[in-house]
Amino acid sequence: MKTTQHILTLARLLSVFFTEGLHAQGTAFTYQGRLNDGGSPANGSYDLTFTLFGVNAGGVAIAGPVTNSAVALSNGLFTTTVGLGNVFTGASNWLTGTFKPKHPPKSDKTGSSTPAPAH
Predict the structure, then answer these.
(1) Which residue, 14, 47, 70, 73, is most buried by CB atoms nearer than 10 A?
(2) Cα separation of 107 and 100, whole Å?
(3) What burial letters (b/e) apply to 90-109, b meaning 16+ CB within 10 Å?
(4) Band of the pLDDT at 59, cuts 50, 70, 90?
(5) What pLDDT digit, counting tens, does each position of 15-26 carry?
(6) How confident is the model at residue 19, as a pLDDT?
(7) What's the burial of 63, exposed, middle or buried (CB within 10 Å: 0-12/13-18/19+)?
(8) pLDDT, tens digit, for every residue of 80-101?
(9) What is the rounded distance in angstroms from the CA atom of residue 113 to the CA atom of residue 68?
(10) 11-50 CB burial, b ≥16 within 10 A, e <16
(11) 40/75 Cα distance (integer angstroms)
């Protein structure tokens, strides 16, 4: 009987110790992409703006716009974290993005993406 009590006490202590470092999962996600500017892979810093919609054309934004400033692009490739909040309910959504050079050339180019399903 005493052995069982000691094991239960030890198990309780260990469960408190090991759960101290656990944290809830956030709602932000990593977004990786490739961007061409003027037909060539983009390089440099870009401001990336993301908006989430419930339909693929028109409609009202569910979340955003959220802008990530000065995202580094190299050979057209980038990785950024997009935090739109707790808006994902299991329904289909579409993520749109606009991309603007941080230090634009004289023509002030701005690009945009076609909506992509966000799951």
Answers:
(1) 73
(2) 12
(3) eeebbbbbbbbbeeeeeeee
(4) confident
(5) 555 555 566 678
(6) 53
(7) buried
(8) 999 999 998 888 999 999 999 9
(9) 15
(10) eeeeeeeeeeeeeeeeeeeebebebebeeeebeeebbbbb
(11) 8
The CA angle 9-15-7, to the nearest 5 degrees, is 25
Strands 93-101 and 111-112: antiparallel
User: What are the strands, taking DSSP E only, across 23-119?
Assistant: 29-34, 36-37, 40-41, 44-53, 61-73, 77-82, 93-101, 111-112, 116-118
Kindly state the tokens that stand for 30.
Answer: 């990593």
Closest CA to 98 of 110, 80, 82, 116: 110
pTM of the model: 0.67
Q: State the amino acid at position 119 in one-letter form.
A: H
Q: Evaluate whether the domain defined by 29-118 bears CATH number 2.40.50.
A: no
Q: How far apart are CA 13 and CA 5, in angstroms?
A: 12
